[in-house]
Amino acid sequence: MTSQPAAISRKEILRGVLAVAIIIVGITHFTHPDQYARIVPPQLPAPVALVYISGVFEILFGIGLTIPFLSVAAAWGLITLFIAVFPANINQAINSIPIDGIPHHPLLYWFRLPFQAVLIAWAWWYTRDPETQAGAAQVAAKLESEVNR
Asked: Which residues form the signal peptide (predicted)?
């Protein structure tokens, strides 16, 4: 008799959704940097460079979120990134700055602001109980065997 693998939990499915979404958004920072540069607050220098930097970190943290050994650090990185880019979201709402591909409605920009808290909470979920995440036991066992050699 063979044992069946455990069902993938909703938390793990949502981890994949968040990771893929963040990676896609990160990629769009390279395909459409001018769109994101528009909403960078004017007080900050080199808006396009900041867009590229944030895109790199979005991609890295999205990938890291899927790797058990890195997922907690990646989740904290996402939290930091979500906080760091929040001034751009505020700037977009205050100045009603349109972005191609997103419906242009000033109320939409204001309603989007609280969603940043949802993203922060979503990432924070993956900082909790990392030992229970999929693959964590295997990574810990492999590290322990390597250390004990």
From this structure: none
CB 128 within 8 A of CB 71: no
Reported as a single tens digit per residue, the pLDDT across 67-113 is 988 899 999 999 999 999 999 999 999 999 998 888 888 899 999 99
Torsional class of 105: left (φ above 0), alpha (ψ -120 to 50), beta (otherwise): beta
Residue linked to tokens 């602001």: 113
Residues 6+ away with beta carbon under 8 Å from 81: 54, 57, 58, 61
**DSSP 8-state secondary structure symbol assigned to residue 149:** -
Distance, CA of 25 to CA of 36 (rounded, Å): 11
